[in-house]
Amino acid sequence: MPTQDEPGTDLPPRRRPRRIGLYGPFLLLALLAVGWSVAWLLIRERAASGLDEWIAAEASAGRRWSCADRHIGGYPFRIEIACSDFTVDRPDVHASIGRLLVVSQIYQPRHIIAEASGPLRIQAGPTKVEGDWRQLQASVILRERGFDRISLVAEMPKAAMQNFGAATLDLASRRFEAHLRPDPAAPATFDLVMRSDGAVIPGLDALVGGEEPADLQVGLEVTETDDLPARPLWNELERWRVVGGRVELRSFGMVKGPRRAEATGTFGIDAEHRVEGRLQIAALGLGGLLGRLADGSGIGGALIGALLGTPEPAVAPKGAAPGLRPLPPLRLDGGRVFVGPLAIPGIRLPPLY
């Protein structure tokens, strides 16, 4: 009986192992990488052309945006647009915010994150504003037309404003944030909510007393905002006044050391282009000018105390916190500032334009 080693024995030929199973996953991965790279390049070109179209449309409306040394990157999962200096010019305003980085994830193209390095420079006629911050970020959620929300957060912001050679107005805060969105229930209306922690505002110490920084919260509703081409600012304000635009102060809160205040109100622009409006205020522990007028101290307070029997009693804002004392209404009318029925002497509101 022949064995395997004996000559003449027939053995089946050995098959070489097939390499396709070994290299198949790597080939598939390479094809996917090439396909994704091509797709990313197409998305990149689409983002660049979309940005160019938007800049052209804005230029036709009178707003000229400029992105110096524009670079588009972010491969493989993001689109990043970087500018060494980002500026905008309107007929009466030039503004720049320094280096800007805008980022959008491929899988969330309608959610845009931006970070600006500063400094901020604004020149609007005789008014000049310069600002800086430790960090500033913005978030924009887009929709088919317009946006759903714009949010901005700044750490350690500060700004200096000069106008007509007057003394510089210095503002500062530990943290500032703002959120803007269209009101879904009211066309041509926007809701704006702002918060500032540790704010230092000139004149606030004299108005309410104390030297501590203030924590502020403001909720606004601005109407008649549907027509905003890039006309000069004063023309914009006049159009807004003529169509009956109003700013509703839905909420205001201030905490400044032991002093607290809350307010609601409404504002507009009168026929002489001055701010007009009315505030309902409730407060606790105020000093300064408002404290003296509200507490009945001094000549002004004595006059108010003698006249508070008028049909306009002090009324707390709707939803004011318990324990806050209602103050006489604060009214802006005819260029004067009234606390209750008494005009504060020496204060005149100039026309805005």
Tell me the strand percentage band. Answer: 35-45%
- The number of distinct β-strands equals 23
Structure class: alpha+beta
Task: Give the N-to-C terminal Cα separation.
Answer: 118 Å
Classify the helix fraction into a percent range. Answer: 10-25%
Describe the protein in words.
With 353 residues, the protein is of the alpha+beta class. The protein has 2 domains: 32-172, no CATH class; 175-353, no CATH class. The protein contains 5 helices and 23 strands. β22 and β23 form a beta hairpin. α4 (288-295) packs across α5. The longest helix is centred in the first third of the chain and has 41 residues, at 20-60. Mean pLDDT is 85; it is low at 297-311.
Short description:
By secondary structure, the protein is α+β, with helices and mostly antiparallel strands. The chain is 21% helix and 41% strand. The protein has five helices and 23 strands.
Keywords:
7-stranded antiparallel sheet, 353 residues, alpha+beta, 5 helices
Topology diagram in text:
Layout: H1 20-60, E1 64-68, E2 71-73, E3 78-83, E4 85-89, E5 94-96, E6 100-105, E7 108-116, E8 120-124, E9 127-132, E10 135-142, E11 147-155, E12 158-163, E13 169-172, E14 175-182, E15 190-199, H2 204-208, E16 214-222, H3 233-242, E17 247-256, E18 259-269, E19 275-284, H4 288-295, H5 298-307, E20 325-326, E21 330-333, E22 336-339, E23 342-343
Antiparallel strand pairs: 1-4, 2-3, 3-6, 4-5, 5-8, 6-7, 7-10, 8-9, 9-12, 10-11, 11-14, 12-13, 14-15, 15-16, 16-17, 17-18, 18-19, 19-20, 19-21, 21-22, 22-23
Helix pairs in contact: 4-5
